[in-house]
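Reviewers asked in the last cycle whether our approach scales beyond single polypeptides. To address this, we selected a multi-component target totalling 237 residues and predicted its structure end to end. The input consisted of the following lines:
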Amino acid sequence: NFMLTQPHSVSESPGKTVTISCTRSSGSIASNYVQWYQQRPGSAPTTVIYEDIQRPSGVPNRFSGSIDSSSNSASLTISGLKTEDEADYYCQSYDSSNHVVFGGGTKLTVL
Amino acid sequence: QVQLVQSGAEVKKPGASVKVSCKASGYTFTSYGISWVRQAPGQGLEWMGWISAYNGNTTYAQRLQGRVTMTTDTSTSTAYMELRSLRSDDTAVYYCARLLYYYDSSGFYITDFDPWGQGTLVTVSS
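The resulting structure, written as C-alpha cells, was:
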C-alpha cells in the first residue's frame, strides 16, 4: 500500500492563488486517478476535482487539478481565493487491490 | 436528485456492535458502489471499505478486516455497515458515499465519491 502526504495547513489572502500538494509515497501518481474533496466544518465532503483534472459541474473554474510525475504528486490549485474557500481539503486515490487511500488533509485559511 | 440518507446517531458500549444504514435515491442503485468512510473528532478521513451494489463484492481496509461487514439490499436501495467489538477509538462520524468505478481494456478505475450521506455519529462509551 502507499500513503498520500499533504501539508497540514496553508494560508493565503483573498484574491491570491494557493496550491495544495499531495505526494504519493510509492508507485506512480499517474497510475491511479486522484480526487480532491472540500470539507467545511460540520458538513460532509464534496468533490472539487475528480479523475486528476476534471471539475464537477457547479465547481468554479477557479479550482484546478494537476499531476506531476517528476515529484510524484498531485496538486489542487485555487485561484482568486474567496473567504468561502476556507475549508479542509483531502486528496484520494486507490491502489492495485482496489483499496482507497486518503491524504491526511490540509486546512486552508483565507485571511 | 441523487441522495444518500443515513440512519441516526448511536451510542454504544465497548464490545457492542453497531449497524448503520444508508438509503439511496435518484439513481440506479446497482450501477455504482457504496463506500464507507469515518472521521474521528478533529481528525481526517479514514476509508473503511466499499461494496459493489451490482454483485455484492466487498473490499475492506486491512485494519478493520474481521470487524466490519458491508452489505446491500437492492430491493430497498439501502447499504449497511456493521462494525463489531466496538472500542472507544471507534467513536466517529460514519459516512456512506456513492462510488463510481468502472472497467475498460486498460484496467479497473475508481473515481470520485459523490454524493456523500449526511453522516452518522457513533459514540462508544462505557
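The two ends of chain A are 37 Å apart (CA to CA). We regard this as preliminary and will revisit it once experimental data from Aim 1 are available.
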